[in-house]
Amino acid sequence: MYFHLIYLLITPIFAVEENVLLTEVFTITLDPLLFNWTYEGDPDQYVYQASLLDSPDLPSWIKYVFSEKHKKGFLYGVPPNRNMAKIPLQVVALNTKNYDTRIRYINIHISEKLNPAKFEVLMKIDNVNVEDIFDVERMESLRDIFRKHLWKDSENDLYVTYLESATELGARKPLDPDQEEGIVIRLGSQSPFSKNLKDLEDEVRPLWKGWKSCPRNFKKTSVERYFRDARVTLDWCAFRLIDPNNSAMHHSGMKENAFLKEKWETITKDNIPIRNYSVDVTWSLVLPIALLILLTFLLSFILCFYHDGIYRDEYPNKMQTPVCHKPAVLSGYKPSSNLIKLSPDPALGSRSHTNSPSSTINRGVHCRPSPPPYMRPRFRTDVPQDEQISDEKNWYC
Predict the structure, then answer these.
(1) Angle in degrees, CA 116, 122, 128, rounded to 5
(2) pLDDT per residue as tens digits for the range 227-267
(3) What CA–CA distance (Å, rounded) separates 30 from 11?
């Protein structure tokens, strides 16, 4: 409790005050001087992390980017239409060489802009990153194209009303890591559009039908020389003139309700809903087992009938019923009685096989398949011995 009170008293003393205007892009630079450090030439020596005070992240309308070219970090964005006393930010800096950590507090005050822009020009620039547009010289050269050539009436009040990286809005990252990602920018003024701007919009209007974004150097316009001198490559398929109904003032008013919901609030453990996993566990066990049983029966049924079909195809003779044939009796043949005397046992020779009480089969009938027809081998007697051997090997062919 005491620490929190001391913290509230000390924070305003060391906080940095920043005044920003509605409908206008602001930038806050984060460099070693802000934390009383000295830059030693290593761009990776210092690391910055910014967030809303007592919150884990920044509001949605504040973005952070670190520039390798400038060796600095930048906070940028467009404040919503919300009258608040101040928006406190907390920036934590880390020195990666000695791991020294320091904290700075920034209070952002939002004020009304006296003459907000009613007319805006929307452009997509391909050869520029977000941090490059924070260069004062680069930004002034882009403004001079409109103030001196295309929109001369906006010379006194032309300013940036919107700025965002093209990749944050859905554009693809370039294949070459050294190539710029591109930005989407709006320039606004209270002055109506000039004739030159309207003619330029009519010139690029045919590209709107089939192209949301054009490749680089896809289309050259009559005012291309002005942008080429300023080292700016525009995507003419994204060029638009925005009327007062869609201007920055109208757009910021729509964000007021959304800003009220951006305050991050913690939740308690009691507010977290409890889910019953019994149904999920049951389905995760029953369903695989049921599928396993079904597949087992299905595969068994298929394999049984498949095996039966293979057996019928490979052994068709075994599936036939054997035919019983009676032995052929030659005419004039009489069984010799000497065959019985060849038996070593006299009892076996005198025994009648057909009249045996244990025999139930008529010995005159033999149940077996018909043998193949007999074919006499073809031998030649007038062939030499060596040729006869080779002929004997091929006689069946």
Answers:
(1) 115
(2) 989 989 999 988 999 988 765 555 554 444 444 444 445 56
(3) 18
